[in-house]
Amino acid sequence: MSQYIYIMSHLQEKFGKIYDKYIEKIYRFVFLKVSSQEIAEDLTSEVFTRGWESFRQEKCDIKNIQAFLYQIARNLVIDHYRQKGQAQLVSVDAFPIIEEGAGLEEKIIQKSEVDEIKAALANINEDYREIIVWYYLDELSVPEIAKILSKSEEAVRVQIHRALGVLKSVMIGLRHQS
Prior knowledge:
- This protein is an all-alpha fold.
- Helices cover about 75% and strands about 0% of the residues.
- The protein is built from seven helices and no strands.
- It has helices spanning about 1-35, 35-55, 65-85, 105-120, 125-135, 140-150, 155-175.
- Helix 5 (about 125-135) crosses helix 7.
- The model is unreliable at about 85-100 (pLDDT under 50).
């Protein structure tokens, strides 16, 4: 019995580190999808509950925990909207990108750039917005994104390239409107 307790304690400690490492990224991803702090907290909690259940099963061999958690989050968000019968609403105002140590002038410039990017992100389709956030904000690798989306790495690279092209076009269009 003490062997079982030792193994469970070790697994809990290991999963605790995983939780600490990914909680903010998973929460931000969910929040961007549901635009409600309360719902995002509930869904994020469920992501880690399901992740723990899978993690603690000795039969479960998770090769990429980050991609695994994002896949759970993505599925929970889809289930949430199916249950609610609602369209997905995404708020790109939810995540701060401004560097902490920047001076006032730098912060003003960064804030302006961030506002421009947020406005452009709000005007592109969901798939492109998602892949840009994962790749550039959350710094997921192409193989990790491919696993989350169940696509080939080449398809993900193409989608990133297209998403950047669309984002750039939208940003240019927004600049001309100003």
